[in-house]
Design goal:
112 residues, mainly alpha
Length: 112
């Protein structure tokens, strides 16, 4: 199986797991699985030619404000806690992807 196919499946699994773990009340201890899938996606999917796209995406995530959105969703009656947890978990997944990729690019830039 190609690395890109594994990376694509890891991305889908990460988003799916972020949502699934939000629906299980005692699943907070399994959030590290989301981070592991984020690392896999960053290492397998994203190439140097996609640097600008990823940086723009990361900045867009920050402007979108996953943390602010998650805290504002918590106030919705009945479903607010679940929506807040879903947004937080997806933000963790995306932040892990961006962080690992930025470390990878930084290593390539400064390791000469």
């Amino acid at each position: 199986m190609k690395e890109s196919a594994i990376g694509s499946y890891a991305f889908l699994a990460g988003v799916g797991l972020a949502i699934l773990l939000s629906l299980v009340p005692q699943a907070n201890s399994a959030v590290w699985l989301i981070a592991i899938l984020g690392i896999a996606v960053a290492l397998l999917n994203i190439q140097a030619r996609e640097t600008m796209k990823l940086l723009l995406w990361t900045i867009g995530m920050g402007v979108f404000g996953f943390a602010a959105l998650a805290s504002s969703m918590a106030g919705i009656p009945a479903v607010g806690t679940v929506l807040s947890t879903i947004i937080t978990n997806i933000g963790l997944f995306f932040a892990t992807i961006a962080g690992v990729f930025l470390l990878k690019i930084g290593y390539k830039i400064f390791h000469k």
